[in-house]
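Allow me, if you will, to draw on your knowledge of protein folds for a short while. I have a record of one protein: its chain in single-letter code and its fold written as discrete structure tokens. Could you please explain, in whatever detail you think fit, how the structure tokens follow from the sequence? The record follows directly beneath this note:
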Amino acid sequence: MFLRSALALALAFAAVPASGQSQPKPVVVELFTSQGCASCPPADALLNELAKDPQVIALTLAVDYWDYVGWKDTLALHGHSLRQKAYADLRPDRKVFTPQMVVDGSLVAKGSDRAAVQRALLTARSARTPGVVLQAKRVGDAIEVALPEGDLDGAVAELWACPVARTQTVSIGRGENGGRNVTYSNVVRGWVRVGPWSGRAAHLRIPVKDLSRNGADSVALLLQEGSAAAPGRIIGASLLSLD
């Protein structure tokens, strides 16, 4: 798997001002897509629109299970295929397809169905369960993240740092989309497991060198219930530049 542990990172517990909780938690949208999928470009275009919304963290997760049809996806990570399947295994429908959007780790919509995606976004925004506000900034050669004190109600959460390329345009040479130029937003280029969160206030430090890979110029931080094998709700998130 492409998931890489970073548990050796230092954790120093510290309080976070309660006023930070008044900020809205951004909604996270994960688009499982493929350059070899003929029905994916409209969903890719919709994600590009969502990426412009400051209250949405829209991520492109390219999968590799369409590579056999004649074009190897240049942005795909096998771990994305595993993540999509892990989400599906926890749902009654157990469906895996492209384009598929997963909203806040718990709501699913066909990625090219604008109305269905908007309904999922509205549902996520109206959720009664409060989110966790991550305060993150670049300090020298590291990303510093502040987690507030919170109540997980018996759940387990993990913080993940995902190197992201804000914009990538690909000329697809063969397959169902052969001859097309497709632009992707917030392309996830890897995953670093920062560590677990127990609900105690904490400060974490992530070296930028661990995030600068495969054209990444930003980092998405996801605080998610469950584990890599059984991902649950995303309860906190942030997206910031590595520059």
